[in-house]
Amino acid sequence: MKKIIAFILVAVGASLILTGCSSAKGEEKKKLEKVVLDYAYYSPTSLALKEFGWAEEVFASEGIEVEWVLSQGSNKALEFLNSKSVDFGSTAGAAALIAKSNGSPIESVYIYSKPEWTALVTTEDSSIKTVEDLKGKKVAATLGTDPYIFLLRSLQEVGLSSKDVEIVNLQHSDGANALLTGQVDAWAGLDPHMASAEVDSGANLFYRDHDKNTYGTLNVRTDFAEEHPDIVEKVIEVYEKSRIWVEENPSEAAEILARESGMKLEVAEKSIERNDFSDPLPGEKQIQALEEAGAVLVSEKVITKDVNIEKVVSELINEEFAEKVLNSK
What we know:
Blueprint: H1 2-30, E1 34-39, H2 44-52, H3 54-60, E2 65-70, H4 74-82, E3 88-92, H5 93-101, E4 106-115, E5 118-122, E6 138-141, H6 146-157, E7 166-169, H7 172-180, E8 186-190, H8 193-201, E9 204-207, E10 216-221, H9 222-227, H10 229-248, H11 250-261, H12 265-273, E11 275-276, H13 284-299, H14 309-316, H15 320-327
Parallel strand pairs: 1-2, 6-7, 6-8
Antiparallel strand pairs: 3-10, 4-10, 4-11, 5-8, 5-9
């Protein structure tokens, strides 16, 4: 009997050791080796963060590598998030809403700016002066982005819809070129490309409405946030450091934007001026803006009518991480 008991104890001990080893290996597998952030010309905060290496400084002590990926537009940032090419992506709030309504597992955890980054644009000599004048015209826009949503909302406001115009789906820079070369009659523009067309070619921003521009949101994949909440907080911390720096140093921020994008300094300065960096905490303002945008998107059948916009917005906007970081300062 004693031998049997001894054997059982040894077996149990061995099992515990093996379980411990297995558990340790499991933890080791979960250890994050790299965090992938995007940067975008429409997000000066991301450019400054990349420029100064503040994320690299924070994560170096933990042995975590930082990788940067360029997003040319909200649609690209969302593609990167969905394919797990990035962990954090910079988008317009309404673009993130469309993605979320289509099942994209993302959360908006930080506001990098409140921009006036889109308007409706024509050439200097165009006969188009009002939104009503767009009826029957070709308009360039990048589907699924804030400029596209801005166009839809502007049309709806004057009793028109997407059916009353021919929307030509082009990436932002290509849309600017299409306008300036006469391939389209108007363009739903995005800074800094819009500012460049304005400064270099005399393009006319014939319709502007700051309140129709949804906020610039930093989004994270939900699975990443659940597995690495501490990393999300650290990313918000460095973003906050960058946001404050950009707000206090707009001229230097414009220089970084100009250098990164290859644009003229005057263009970069105009683009920076159109951003409000004062309020980084996601919450009720964003919820209201997205619900209003969502109503238009449902009416235009961009989002199906069976989608509960309020529910999707509430699941998209996650203020908990930013509240924790900002309240600790």
